Amino acid sequence: MWASGAYGYLTDYLWWYLVVASLIAHTWCFFKFVPPHRLGRLRLVIGNVLIALCLLSLAGLAAETYLRFLSVETDSYGVTLTAKRWHKAYARLNSLYCRDEEWSESKPPGRYRIAFVGDSFTYGWGIKDVRDRFTDIIQHRFDQQVPGRVEVMNVAWGGWDSQSVLGAIRDLLKPYDLDEVVLCYVPNDIETLLPVDGEADPREPHKSVYLNVESSFLVNHLYYWLFPRRLPNGLSYADWLVSGYRNPDIWAKQQRRLLDIIDLCRQRNITLRVALLPLMWPTGQGYDAAALHAQLREFFITHGVSVIDLLPTVEGQAHERLVVNRRDAHPNEFAHRLFADAIWNALDRSR
């Protein structure tokens, strides 16, 4: 009864009722026992303040109730309580902690296996129905064209970088017989190589030291809305990423990680192709998506890897039309359909 879950601790919620009841009781007692002729104008001021507090507390209780029991939406970093409830409600994981069906280690004769490996963009962060993800749309199209011949595996997790992807591919190669790997690369796959300046970590919002934002859904919502991430030197998140690609040492380290993925697939005779997924809502003065994608395309093509650049599929579209919500810059269902169309047209469908 008192334990935390998708709706938080019950005791935290009951405190709202206690505050509202106390304010209403004190307001009633004030007007009941303090007659109009006492305190003069001060009585009017105190009375108005008490009434205002009662109204604010009722509004706060209504907002707390809505956010605690009805609101289910993600944010870009999964830090809000409503985002955590979203994952409890919609993220169904298989035994390997991937948001997909169970995979059989024994591949039926004649079946072609494609593993899409990536981070939260591939995972379908903010996508309630997995059938709306680009990987599942592609699977559906294969099922219509060549039923039972092609199996699409969604191997992804929020926050994975290129090193994590390399480890995931290695783990898959042991029990599963893969034919093709599609590396779903997002520009932020480099972020774990970038320096972090003290408490200003661009990878997550700053957490409150003095305020417990986990006890109230309303306080949690307001905190992460009013106090967004503060980055060092006034950089935006996208600018911070670009600084890594422009740094020769950091870019060299990232290239080595990507070369490890390329070499691993070649050693196992697995077809590798890359899908370059763009940031959905980049901000900043120095972020040039076209130049960054050109840099990545050149690297992969130079090493003989086929590239599907998805930046052209979203160019010209309003950012608001592509993202999950105003606080979550992950691709929404519409963007996933655009990605699916572009990847589908580039895949070898003669299976």
Which descriptors apply to this entry?
351 residues, alpha/beta, 5-stranded parallel β-sheet, two-stranded antiparallel sheet, 13 helices, 7 strands, 48% helix
Strand order of the largest sheet: 2-1-3-4-5
Low-confidence stretches: none
Report mean pLDDT, rounded to a whole number.
Answer: 90
* Main sheet characteristics: 5 strands, parallel
Q: Strand portion, in percent?
A: 5-15%
What is the succession of H and E elements? Answer: HHHEHHEHEHHHEHEHHEEH
Q: In angstroms, what separates the terminal alpha carbons?
A: 54 Å
Percentage of residues assigned to helices? 40-55%
Global outline? elongated
Number of strands: 7
The number of helical runs is 13
Q: What is the CA-based Rg, rounded?
A: 26 Å
Class from helix and strand fractions: alpha/beta
Structural features, described:
With 351 residues, this protein is an alpha/beta fold. Helices cover 48% and strands 11% of the residues. It has a 5-stranded parallel β-sheet with strand order 2-1-3-4-5, sandwiched between helices. It has a two-stranded antiparallel ribbon with strand order 6-7. α5 (134-145) packs across α13. The longest helix is centred in the N-terminal third of the chain and has 29 residues, at 41-69. The chain is elongated and about 90 Å long. The model has no long low-confidence stretch (mean pLDDT 90).
Record the SSE blueprint:
Elements: H1 10-33, H2 41-69, H3 81-90, E1 112-118, H4 120-123, H5 134-145, E2 150-156, H6 162-173, E3 180-185, H7 217-226, H8 237-246, H9 248-267, E4 271-276, H10 289-302, E5 306-309, H11 311-314, H12 319-322, E6 323-325, E7 328-331, H13 333-346
Parallel strand pairs: 1-2, 1-3, 3-4, 4-5
Antiparallel strand pairs: 6-7
Helix pairs in contact: 1-2, 2-7, 5-13, 6-9
